[in-house]
Amino acid sequence: MASTEVELINVLEASLTRKNKTAVRRIMVKAKQGHYHDFKSNMMMPKVTLIRDLQQVGLVEIADRVRDGEFDEEYPSPEQERHFNEVLRHGTPARA
Fold first, then answer.
1. Helix, strand, coil % in the chain, rounded to nearest 5
2. Does the residue 96 lie in any domain?
3. pTM higher than the cut 0.90
4. What is the pLDDT of residue 90?
Protein backbone atom coordinates (compact mmCIF):
# COMPACT_ATOMS: atom_id res chain seq x y z
CA MET A 1 0.00 0.00 0.00
CA ALA A 2 1.04 3.55 -0.63
CA SER A 3 1.06 6.55 1.67
CA THR A 4 -0.97 9.72 1.21
CA GLU A 5 2.03 11.70 2.44
CA VAL A 6 4.54 10.33 -0.09
CA GLU A 7 3.30 8.23 -3.00
CA LEU A 8 0.05 10.17 -3.47
CA ILE A 9 2.12 13.36 -3.76
CA ASN A 10 4.12 11.77 -6.59
CA VAL A 11 0.94 10.70 -8.40
CA LEU A 12 -0.57 14.17 -8.02
CA GLU A 13 2.63 15.84 -9.21
CA ALA A 14 2.43 13.77 -12.39
CA SER A 15 -1.22 14.77 -12.89
CA LEU A 16 -0.65 18.53 -12.84
CA THR A 17 -1.94 20.46 -15.81
CA ARG A 18 -2.20 24.17 -16.40
CA LYS A 19 -5.95 23.89 -15.86
CA ASN A 20 -5.89 22.12 -12.46
CA LYS A 21 -2.49 23.18 -11.10
CA THR A 22 -3.66 25.45 -8.26
CA ALA A 23 -6.36 23.09 -6.98
CA VAL A 24 -4.13 20.02 -7.14
CA ARG A 25 -1.32 21.83 -5.34
CA ARG A 26 -3.79 22.62 -2.51
CA ILE A 27 -4.56 18.90 -2.22
CA MET A 28 -0.83 18.14 -2.22
CA VAL A 29 -0.21 20.58 0.64
CA LYS A 30 -3.02 19.01 2.67
CA ALA A 31 -1.65 15.52 1.96
CA LYS A 32 1.86 16.52 3.07
CA GLN A 33 0.37 17.88 6.31
CA GLY A 34 -1.35 14.55 7.07
CA HIS A 35 -4.85 15.90 6.37
CA TYR A 36 -5.84 12.75 4.47
CA HIS A 37 -3.76 10.28 6.54
CA ASP A 38 -5.72 7.42 8.10
CA PHE A 39 -4.16 7.91 11.54
CA LYS A 40 -2.84 11.48 11.64
CA SER A 41 -5.93 13.31 10.40
CA ASN A 42 -8.43 14.81 12.83
CA MET A 43 -11.23 13.76 10.47
CA MET A 44 -13.25 10.61 11.05
CA MET A 45 -13.01 9.56 7.39
CA PRO A 46 -10.14 11.40 5.69
CA LYS A 47 -10.20 9.22 2.58
CA VAL A 48 -13.81 10.19 1.85
CA THR A 49 -12.72 13.84 1.92
CA LEU A 50 -9.72 13.04 -0.30
CA ILE A 51 -11.94 11.25 -2.83
CA ARG A 52 -14.32 14.22 -2.93
CA ASP A 53 -11.45 16.69 -3.31
CA LEU A 54 -9.93 14.67 -6.16
CA GLN A 55 -13.26 14.35 -7.95
CA GLN A 56 -13.86 18.10 -7.69
CA VAL A 57 -10.64 18.80 -9.61
CA GLY A 58 -11.36 16.14 -12.23
CA LEU A 59 -8.95 13.48 -10.95
CA VAL A 60 -11.55 10.72 -10.96
CA GLU A 61 -9.08 7.94 -11.79
CA ILE A 62 -6.92 8.83 -8.78
CA ALA A 63 -10.05 9.09 -6.63
CA ASP A 64 -10.95 5.55 -7.75
CA ARG A 65 -7.49 4.35 -6.72
CA VAL A 66 -7.99 5.89 -3.28
CA ARG A 67 -11.41 4.23 -3.03
CA ASP A 68 -9.80 0.89 -3.95
CA GLY A 69 -7.42 1.22 -1.00
CA GLU A 70 -4.19 1.93 -2.86
CA PHE A 71 -3.34 4.82 -0.52
CA ASP A 72 -4.48 3.28 2.75
CA GLU A 73 -1.80 3.65 5.37
CA GLU A 74 -0.27 0.48 6.77
CA TYR A 75 -0.77 -0.72 10.29
CA PRO A 76 -0.07 2.11 12.69
CA SER A 77 3.42 2.78 13.94
CA PRO A 78 3.92 3.06 17.71
CA GLU A 79 3.57 6.85 17.36
CA GLN A 80 0.33 6.45 15.45
CA GLU A 81 -1.00 3.98 18.03
CA ARG A 82 -0.29 6.49 20.82
CA HIS A 83 -2.08 9.16 18.80
CA PHE A 84 -5.08 6.89 18.21
CA ASN A 85 -5.26 5.88 21.88
CA GLU A 86 -5.11 9.55 22.90
CA VAL A 87 -8.07 10.27 20.66
CA LEU A 88 -10.02 7.37 22.14
CA ARG A 89 -9.29 8.51 25.70
CA HIS A 90 -9.77 12.24 25.33
CA GLY A 91 -11.60 12.82 22.05
CA THR A 92 -8.88 15.03 20.60
CA PRO A 93 -5.29 14.24 19.73
CA ALA A 94 -2.43 15.69 21.70
CA ARG A 95 -0.26 17.85 19.46
CA ALA A 96 3.48 18.20 19.84
1. 55, 0, 45
2. no
3. no
4. 80
